[in-house]
Sequence to fold (394 residues):
Amino acid sequence: MFFNSLLTNFAALEVGQHLYWQIGNIRLHGQVFLTSWILLGALLVFISLGTKKMENDPKGLQNLLEFLWDYIRDLARTQIGEKVYRDWMPFIGTLFLFVFVSNWGGALIPWRLIKLPSGELGAPTADINTTIALALLVSLSYFYAGLSNKGWRYFEYYVHPTPIMLPFKILEDFTKPLSLSFRLFGNILADELVVGVLVFLVPLILPIPVMFLGLFTSAIQALIFATLAAYYIGEAVEEHH
Amino acid sequence: MLAFNFFGATEGGLFDINATLPLMAIQVVALTYILNSLFFKPVGKVVEKREKFVSDNIIEAKNKLSEVKKLEADLLTQLQSARTEAQRIVSEAENESDKLYKEALELANNEANASKEKARLEIESQTSAARDQLSKQADDLSELIVNRLILEK
Fold:
């Protein structure tokens, strides 16, 4: 009885339902694009405001943006290495900012108040398409980084300490995007679900610590995603001696 | 397409993969270019300019500090040599004045001795002259007395 009602209530949380957009033959998850456009628009407005008048003595927003820039540079530099981190810093930074803004936007903005005909708005990173897209971009990036930096010698990496490693290294090329995408997707979706269920069951006070935990998880996941992406690129461009 | 029902969703589900994936990838790539020109490049330019400014200033300050230290050491040695020079001059002057004093003293002593000697000689000669005159007068007187006594007889 109780379980049944819980199930229907879960259905009220609309897990796994999407707002479909049909363009010709292709179908899109509209809610993902809607939230991502809103959040990325906010991010771009924020960044253009902060970089509008750059001064040598930073004031206000410029301070924050410079801190962010420095943070991303440190991340890229420690993972990728002094030599090529400059080429990859924008990509790593974009991954970090995109994931961070998506996660926090999904957690902080009460999207639930906006009613959609089907599905509901939420963090774009809680959709498997987004995370797989990001993970595949990372895979392409590290292949490109390795090949453009070392040419065919990139494949030495696969037999690096011994040729015995070959199958494992090939397997890694599949597990890397898989783990990247599912880690992010799982964490953000789980957080949304937990908060959703708690809000549904106990609307007062109790969800608040879980929401804070969710914010923490969101930030950590963004950091993990960017760090791992940078680490994979760094691994690909690293010179073996 | 991988899709299965989850909690009674009629279509789609959690693992509904469709064209959202490539479009999202294109969106992220576009975002990378936009953020690069809007955020990473301009902020990087400002930050690196400032870092260069700061490090240049630090290097300059270090150079100036070492220069100052060199000059200080230079001045110290100069001061030292000036001090010894001054000491040398002072002692030389002291010796000189000592010598001059001794010379002057000797000269004065000699002069004094000479004039003393001269005075003594003069006194002596005057004394002998006086004595001669006195004995001559005594002779004359005695002759006069003798002549008178002889004449009265």
User: Anything to note?
Assistant: Chain A is about 70% helix and 5% strand. Helices of chain A lie at 2-12, 30-50, 61-80, 85-108, 128-150, 166-201, 207-237. Residues 2-237 of chain A form one domain.
